């Protein structure tokens, strides 16, 4: 009975065990199949990824490794011909920035299928989401290549027709239509290999050519060794905006259209220059093409989008006879805009020349409209060289120059020195703490409020007493201005300053930091307050910000913002100071020129009715040591208020000043804008 029961139980378990075994066998079978499929998919993904990476890296010859010889032969090609076709087409259309997404590899109907999408840039910009598909070998290690893997829709012996209609870059012109950045004639200097001869004759010619172009012999040899060079091809070595003065035997000169800068060094920091688009540029902006140029500095960079325009043309698949099958890209050309500035080219050149290569800048503004007539910086560089290919020798000379020729001094912040005193005075008059007629008794050349100042003393140049506002401006008295600033106090002083442009971004296509009263929201001491009152301390304004701040004087208390683009509206800020205060200070600044003791009296010889204020900002580590002196002049036409000037000379030498450098410029402005 017991044995019979056990037998029955065992008989019941047997089907269950058999079932489990069958399930395990089925799971194992399909598990192996799944594993094999997954491994095959990974292999296929690696094959396709490697193939696309070779395209990305322009290693077209390496694509042969991923191609099936039988498949390539079946469509009428060899592996070498496929690689050459990629080389020819992708180079011809300037393919770059190739990116793949949505790669899939799967087995369908007994074959290993793959698909992916590519986006890349051509000479017309970005070509998005091209959908590719094909099959792989049985082991997934080779691609069964067909022409549709160049572009979807290609087959047989189809070709690519690539026609470019390049956009013309917009020019930058001055207020009178004179060119500042133009599309003019440039000179391509190069060689034709067969004309160089051979042996020592060739070596001698290359040496002479290299010397005339300020190149090394190896630079010429390197150009000649490029893969595309043939014996009768022109090989460019250098592009210049001016025709060469000497043409050694073997040097060829061709003319073409390129970017030129007629004012050269005189407007380099303002206008800037262009350069060829790089791979990094395209990564940042997919709309760019490798065939175009982009602004690298100055207005060329700031206004690049509207200047550059959009190149046009078409990219199409054609059959072997040239009949169009499919248009891949078609772009209508849009030329860049011409930008008209408020700049006066002649004044710009005179201002730059007047600086004589010394470190400094000149800014000229029409006070009523805010139009910037001049923004010059010295020393400078030739933007034509930067655009057309500068030699290493020339570039090193610029980059190693301690006076920093690439620096835009008209947009760099400095302590303005005594040119700022009229602003302080106006705030004091408006607040009722400064009486222009009150005379202060000041004895000696040094002064401090009390012993709490320690060894620190405010100094002045002339021992004059008593001193009122007019006397203080004529003699540029630091002690008077320090005392008046302390009298009004920090709260009143800052409230007055905050009516100007401190902390504001000016609406100009010029990179600059905002004007600064101090590095913190309050002065660290009374000494800092006093120093700021006569234009030192931590006060920072660049020359454009200075001339904007001082515009309240020729405009009866209204501040006029600067503008550089001719068709921009003039913006103003009314009642920054009272009109009566502006009139009082303007009269006193006229005396700075007319009074024989005035610090700008040398300008009286020009016979122009000017109001002016000079300034010297000293940069030093210790109170009694001699430091670097920056010289400033602010002057405006007090008769008609048609022009104003801020002249700046950095680290002035003994016997020089911004005032002396400004005379030719002021004479031209008076003759032209009276």
TrEMBL record:
GO cellular component: plasma membrane
Main location: membrane
Superkingdom of this protein's organism: Bacteria
Keywords of this entry: Membrane, Transmembrane, Transmembrane helix
Penicillin-binding protein dimerisation domain segment(s): 166-327
SUPFAM superfamilies: beta-lactamase/transpeptidase-like, NTF2-like, Penicillin binding protein dimerisation domain
Membrane topology: Single-pass membrane protein
NTF2-like N-terminal transpeptidase domain segment(s): 45-157
Positions of the Penicillin-binding protein transpeptidase domain: 360-666
Similarity-based family: Belongs to the transpeptidase family.
Source organism per UniProt: Enterococcus hermanniensis
Segments traversing the membrane: 14-35
Cell location: Cell membrane
Protein name from the UniProt record: Penicillin-binding protein transpeptidase
InterPro entries noted in UniProt: Beta-lactam/transpept, Beta-lactam/transpept-like, MecA_N, NTF2-like_dom_sf, PBP_dimer, PBP_dimer_sf, PCN-bd_Tpept
GO MF entries: penicillin binding; peptidoglycan L,D-transpeptidase activity
Gene Ontology terms describing biological process: cell wall organization; response to antibiotic
């Amino acid at each position: 009975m017991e044995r019979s029961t056990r037998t029955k139980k065992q008989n019941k378990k047997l089907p269950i065990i058999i079932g489990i075994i069958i399930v395990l066998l089925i799971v194992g079978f399909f598990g192996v199949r799944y594993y094999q499929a997954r491994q095959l998919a990974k292999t296929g993904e690696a094959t396709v990824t490697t193939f696309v990476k070779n395209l990305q890296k322009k290693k077209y010859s390496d694509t042969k490794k991923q191609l099936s010889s039988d498949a390539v032969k079946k469509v009428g090609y060899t592996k070498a011909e496929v690689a050459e076709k990629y080389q020819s087409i992708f180079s011809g259309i300037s393919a770059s920035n190739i990116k793949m997404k949505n790669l899939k590899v799967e087995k369908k109907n007994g074959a290993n299928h793959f698909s992916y999408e590519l986006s890349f840039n051509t000479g017309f910009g970005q070509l998005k989401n091209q959908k590719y598909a094909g099959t792989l070998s049985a082991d997934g290690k080779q691609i069964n290549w067909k022409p549709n893997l160049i572009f979807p829709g290609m087959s047989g012996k189809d070709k690519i027709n690539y026609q470019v209609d390049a956009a013309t870059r917009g020019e930058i012109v001055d207020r009178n239509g004179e060119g500042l950045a133009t599309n003019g004639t440039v000179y391509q200097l190069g060689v034709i290999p067969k004309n160089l001869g051979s042996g020592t004759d060739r070596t001698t010619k290359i040496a002479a050519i290299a010397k005339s172009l300020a190149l090394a012999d190896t630079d010429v040899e390197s150009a000649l060794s490029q893969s595309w060079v043939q014996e009768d091809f022109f090989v460019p070595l250098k592009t210049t905006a001016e025709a060469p003065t000497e043409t050694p035997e073997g040097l060829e000169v061709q003319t073409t259209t390129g970017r030129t800068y007629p004012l050269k060094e005189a407007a380099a920091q303002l206008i800037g220059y262009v350069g060829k688009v790089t791979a990094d540029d395209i990564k940042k902006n997919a709309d760019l093409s490798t065939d175009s140029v982009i602004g690298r500095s100055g207005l060329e960079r700031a206004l690049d989008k509207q200047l550059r325009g959009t190149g046009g043309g078409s990219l199409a698949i054609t059959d072997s006879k040239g009949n169009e099958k499919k248009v891949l890209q078609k772009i209508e050309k849009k030329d860049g805009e011409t930008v008209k500035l408020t700049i006066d080219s002649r004044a710009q050149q005179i201002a730059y020349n007047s600086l004589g290569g010394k470190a400094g800048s000149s800014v000229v503004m029409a006070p009523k409209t805010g139009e910037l007539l001049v923004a010059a910086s010295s020393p400078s560089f030739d933007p034509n060289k930067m655009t057309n290919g500068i030699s290493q020798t020339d570039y090193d000379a610029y980059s190693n120059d301690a006076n920093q020729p690439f620096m835009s001094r008209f947009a760099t912040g400095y302590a303005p020195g005594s040119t700022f005193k009229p602003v302080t005075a106006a705030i004091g008059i408006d607040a009722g703490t400064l009486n222009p007629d009150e005379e202060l008794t000041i004895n000696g050349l040094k002064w401090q409020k009390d012993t709490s100042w320690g060894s620190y003393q405010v100094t002045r140049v002339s021992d004059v007493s008593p001193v009122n506002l007019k006397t203080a401006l004529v003699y540029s008295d630091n002690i008077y201005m320090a005392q008046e600033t302390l009298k009004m106090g920090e709260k009143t002083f800052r409230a007055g300053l905050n009516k100007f442009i401190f902390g504001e971004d000016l609406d100009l296509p010029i990179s600059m930091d905002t004007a600064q009263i101090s590095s913190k929201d309050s002065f660290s001491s009374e000494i800092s307050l006093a120093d700021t009152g006569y234009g030192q301390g931590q006060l920072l304004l660049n020359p454009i910000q200075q001339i904007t701040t001082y515009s309240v004087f020729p405009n009866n208390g209204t501040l006029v913002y600067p503008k550089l683009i001719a068709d921009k509206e003039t913006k103003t800020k009314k009642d920054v100071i009272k009109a009566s205060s502006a009139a009082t200070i303007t009269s006193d600044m006229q005396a700075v020129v007319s009074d024989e003791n005035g610090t700008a009296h040398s300008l009286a010889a020009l016979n122009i009715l000017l109001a002016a204020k000079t300034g010297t900002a000293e940069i030093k580590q210790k109170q009694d040591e001699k430091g670097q002196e920056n010289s400033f002049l602010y002057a405006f036409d007090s008769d008609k208020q048609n022009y104003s000037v801020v002249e700046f000379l950095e680290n002035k030498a003994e016997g020089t000043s911004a005032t002396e450098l400004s005379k030719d410029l002021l004479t031209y402005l008076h003759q032209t804008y009276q």
